[in-house]
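Example record for the data management plan.
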Amino acid sequence: MPLSKTPIWCAASLLALTCVTACADPGYYVVTAYSDPGLRTVDLRYWTVDTPRAPATLWPELGLGWNVDERWYTGVLASYIGSEGTATRLSTLNWQNDLVLTGGRYPVDVALHTLVTKDYSGGHALEFGPALQTDVGRTQLNFNLFFARAFGAMAGKPTQLKYQWQARYRWMPALHVGLQGFGEVGRWDHWPAWQKQSHRAGPAVFGKLPIGGRTSGDQPVQWQAAWLVGSTYAQHGSMFSARVSYGF
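Corresponding structural encoding:
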């Protein structure tokens, strides 16, 4: 690609993805139903979207979380946006709350997930819905169904429906392997054609670092990474995500 065209592609990529920021930020990480009472965390996150004929768009993120008790997790997250050819800037501020409703009384645990987003392009968004989790032997299974509603500058956009799923096999105490998938199917009550929807999936790995600290097993540093292929908001491409969490 000629160098003279690079800024144009960067601007176009950022503009296209910023238009959906209110319903896309923060990054794509599977919400889980369980809470670790009293644990506080510092999260460093990084995810990218890479589409053909455009530089990768990058989202570094920094968050603070608190597991208030065995049912309630709350956290705040600052999400930044940039690309390979443009400066990184603050994109959204986010407040997440997850409330476990069942507490291990049933084969499938259910949590209520909410996320309030302030978009610095002038919009706001609310994401909410059920997060489901169960175990089959050494495999943890998750499926989440979330509704996203934009307000403010993007108030005219109808409520959107998106999903997450994960299969995580506990291979050994310090290393788990699995698969993840994410998708956006469009308007919640009237899905568009398959070609206009977004679906992607790929492998994921999870681990712990043997450093003394607060969490169970004296391993407060946990990490995960995933590589997903498919489509993002109806554009073919790939997504990489990584997360490092320190608990205290």
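Summary line stored alongside the record: Confidence is low (pLDDT under 50) at residues 1-25.
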